Amino acid sequence: MVLENILSPTTAREKPYYMGVIAFLFTIVGLWLAYYLFPNSASILTLAFIVIAAEPIIRSTFQQTEEEEADTPGKATTFLERHFDLVKIYSWFFLGLVLAFATWYIILPESAQGNCALGDICKQLPSRGSIYAEQEHQLRGIGELRSQLQQESVPVTGHATAGYNIGGNVEAPPTSTTKDRDFWSVVGFLFSNNATVLLLAILFSFLFGEGALFLISWNASIIGTVIGKISAQTLATLPTHDIFSVVYSLGIGVYQGIGFIPHGIPEIIAYYIGAIAGGIISVSMAKEVYKTHEFETIAKDAGALIITAVIVLFIAALIEGYLWLYT
Question: Transmembrane segments in this chain: where (predicted)?
Fold first, then answer.
């Protein structure tokens, strides 16, 4: 396949920052393809095209990592050392997506407009409303739930969407007021919701090879939208809108966006780790090495990775719960 040859597994592991560049390029291609082929579903299909493009690279890297572990067992002393290359690849891929989604949020107009570039040939420039429809809906749900948690003497009830997770409605915490609302109940709610996404990341990665890429890409698009919104607001206050203004606004957006989502870093890392656990088991199952020493090592690694992911996810829930209630 052509996509498998864009970046070799060896290069991806030695220079993982290339995955950031590739993610940025894949986002551009996916965004425009999704809009012109399926304009009414562009916000989700953009992610689908990104995953389709990136899956061969990630899968081949998984296979190389698993083969090395089989050929040289014990070369790395801990399970984190054995799979740290994959964490770095996922991280750069995630950062590339965040930057791409944030950049296009600034560039695209709020509403659809005509863009005549070649004489009488006019093409419609995508709008934020079409490309970021699902992301904006998710962020509104997050804002509404956070407002409910912070309001005094207002019951928290009904359905809302919490965290930078996959779309859809989830159960809100049990009805309570400010006086009897307990910090740990909020943490428990956030942790259980995020743990569901972690489970999906593991299952997707196990069942579909690299299905967890979709969840990771979705989270990247949400964070990119947050940064893009801040950057667009900053750009609107500047006297000029040239390339330097865009870069400056994007820098402000990144700086402020990181401040708004400190819990997002451990949360996303937990999803990486879960995806790696599911992925290495999937690769070993495909090779049919169920009763070998190789599979025993992989199974132990996967279990240790999942436990680590759960611990990191709980830390993220503690941070997020504190921020939601006390900031």
Answer: 17-37, 89-108, 183-206, 212-231, 243-262, 268-290, 302-325
Non-local CB neighbours of 302 within 8 Å, separated by 6+ positions: 277, 278, 280, 281
pTM, two decimals, is 0.76
Distance CA 206, CA 227 (A): 31
306/228 Cα distance (integer angstroms): 32
Q: What angle do CA 220, 187, 180 make, to 5 degrees?
A: 140
Cβ neighbors of 227 (< 8 A, separation 6 or more) are 98, 102, 105, 250, 253, 254, 256, 257
Residue span of the structural domain in which 108 resides: 3-326
For the chain, the domain total comes to 1
Residue 207 pLDDT greater than 50, yes or no = yes
- Cβ(275)–Cβ(132) below 8 Å: no
264, two tokens:
């997002």
At 114-149, the pLDDT tens digits run: 444 333 434 566 778 888 888 888 888 777 766 665
DSSP class of 133? H
The Cα angle at residue 172 between residues 170 and 175, in degrees rounded to 5 = 155
Whether 267 contacts 313, CB under 8 Å:
yes
